[in-house]
# Entry
Amino acid sequence: MKKIEAVIKPFKLDDVREALSEIGIAGMTAIEVKGFGRQKGHTELYRGAEYVVDFLPKMKLEIVINDDQVDRCIDVITNAARTGKIGDGKIFVTDVIRVVRIRTGERDNDAI
# Structure
């Protein structure tokens, strides 16, 4: 099993969710986060004063899937989240050692 963590632009969340649903991935966790990479934030004007916004709003998706779904999942997220502009985000893939469904006690692949 693998855990995919994708950091994307907030307005791309629905596109990514719909694209993942089309390939049979129904469960995910979406978290509002703030961060920056090469973008380095931007400058805004508020009540006549200029200030720097270092951390930009992003969405972090967490998805646990079977190993054989990883490449397809990455492709779908990449295509749905891409704008072609800086700040489109990143995808991280890590191993998952164990999953337990709390309600039933199911484990590993049965729990996802």
Notes: The two ends are 9 Å apart (CA to CA). Helices lie at 13-22, 70-81. The mean pLDDT is 90. Residues 24 and 69 are 10 Å apart (CA to CA).
